[in-house]
Structure formats: structure tokens, C-alpha cells
Specification:
heterodimer; A: 114 residues; mainly beta; seven-stranded mixed sheet; four-stranded antiparallel sheet; B: 109 residues; six-stranded mixed sheet; five-stranded antiparallel sheet; 11 strands
Chain lengths: 114, 109
């Protein structure tokens, strides 16, 4: 069974530029999560989707961050414009329906904003 | 006060020893508790979960939960150099996983 796929793995951009991250969850997993992980910290939830519905986006900085999961499968997280403080690893995870404790993480995208 | 607190370490133990990792949480109503292992540059990997007070054993790993003290621990017996990683404690509340900052463990040969 293929795991959670994320791309790109690494991204370097200049501040004020836009950036987008893509995630393909494990087949059949209807719940998808985007986390942000700063160096030396644990992951912090940005947004959680149940199918195509964002059920928890309270931690997503909506002035510059947006996310979508149009068909309830793949998801895209966008930052526009990026700031220096956005440099971090962006992790995507997925879990089966009603088994939210079984979260499987993708490899992450390491973003560097110069 | 952070929701989930861990000693950042580093914790260093010799090969073959028992490594003890500790975690406290602030929400007394929390029901589900997890330990993730994260190798440097890699994503977190679930190694144990525990829901009830007491001990839960899985191979060389034992998770311990004390809800009255709001305390979770992870014991690793017969520690191996391959166990060297950061261990993240997490609490799941209503679907959202809250992570601690992690404890870095080094097992020396």
C-alpha cells in the first residue's frame, strides 16, 4: 500500500513569493490533515478535512494561507505571500474514516523563505 | 502552559539500558495518548497508543498512563542505537492531535 505522497520535498523561495504544496493521501483515507513543524517543535495542526469539507481550520492563518481538497482526495496548501517566518516543514497526514487516531504522515515539504 | 509538555533532552543511555521518556498534559478530559518516533529529517511514525490507565506493552516498548496525574510515559527496554531519534508525545482531542516538542534520545553503543 502506498503511503502519503507529498511534493515538492524541498522548496526555496524569496519572501513575498507564492508557494503551493501538494498531498495525495493513502487510498481510502477520507480524513486529511496539514501540519506545520518548526525545528525542535512538534507538528502543529493547520487544517483538517473530512472528505472535501474543512472541519477544523481554526489554526490556519487565513490572511496568507489557503487550502483546498476539491474532490475529497488530493489537497493543496498555498501561502501567498510567503514570509521569512513561514520557513518550516509542512506535513500532510491521513487517517481512515472514524479512525482519527491512526494518522499516517507523509515525508513533508521543507520550505525555506529567503 | 503548553497543552503537552516533554523534557526536550537530550537523553543519553547506553546500549541495552532502559530509556524512560515522560510527558504531561494539561487537559484533564483527554482520552487518547500517543507516542511517535521521528528520525532526523523524517516524518513522525506512530509506535504506541494508550487509552486506559496502566501499562501497555508492545515488544520492547511499554506505554504507561496515569490520568489522575495527567502523565504519560514510554519505556524502551534493551535500547539499541537504532532507537536514537526524537520521541513525540501526543494527545488526541476530538480528532485533533496535539503534540509535545519531543525528547531527543541518543543510545550510545
Amino acid at each position: 500500500e502506498a503511503g502519503v505522497v507529498q511534493s515538492p520535498r524541498y522548496k526555496i523561495i524569496e519572501k513575498k513569493q507564492p508557494v503551493a504544496f501538494w498531498c495525495n493521501p493513502i487510498s481510502g483515507h477520507n480524513t486529511l490533515y496539514w501540519y506545520l513543524q518548526n525545528l525542535g517543535q512538534g507538528p502543529e495542526l493547520l487544517i483538517r478535512y473530512e472528505n472535501e469539507e474543512a472541519v477544523d481550520d481554526s489554526q490556519l492563518p487565513k490572511d496568507r494561507f489557503s487550502a483546498e481538497r476539491l474532490k475529497g482526495v488530493d489537497s493543496t496548501l498555498k501561502i501567498q505571500p510567503a514570509e521569512l517566518g513561514d520557513s518550516a516543514v509542512y506535513l500532510c497526514a491521513s487517517s481512515p474514516r472514524d479512525r482519527y487516531n491512526e494518522q499516517f504522515f507523509g515525508p513533508g515539504t521543507r520550505l525555506t523563505v529567503l | 502552559q503548553k497543552e503537552v509538555e516533554q523534557n526536550s533532552g537530550p537523553l543519553s543511555v547506553p546500549e541495552g539500558a532502559i530509556a524512560s521518556l515522560n510527558c504531561t498534559y494539561s487537559d484533564r478530559g483527554s482520552q487518547s495518548f500517543f507516542w511517535y518516533r521521528q528520525y532526523s529529517g523524517k516524518s513522525p511514525e506512530l509506535i504506541m497508543f494508550i487509552y486506559s490507565n496502566g501499562d501497555k506493552e508492545d515488544g520492547r516498548f511499554t506505554a504507561q498512563l496515569n490520568k489522575a496525574s495527567q502523565y504519560v510515559s514510554l519505556l524502551i527496554r534493551d535500547s539499541q542505537p537504532s532507537d536514537s531519534a526524537t520521541y513525540l508525545c501526543a494527545v488526541n482531542d476530538r480528532g485533533d492531535m496535539r503534540f509535545g516538542a519531543g525528547t531527543r534520545l541518543t543510545v550510545k553503543p
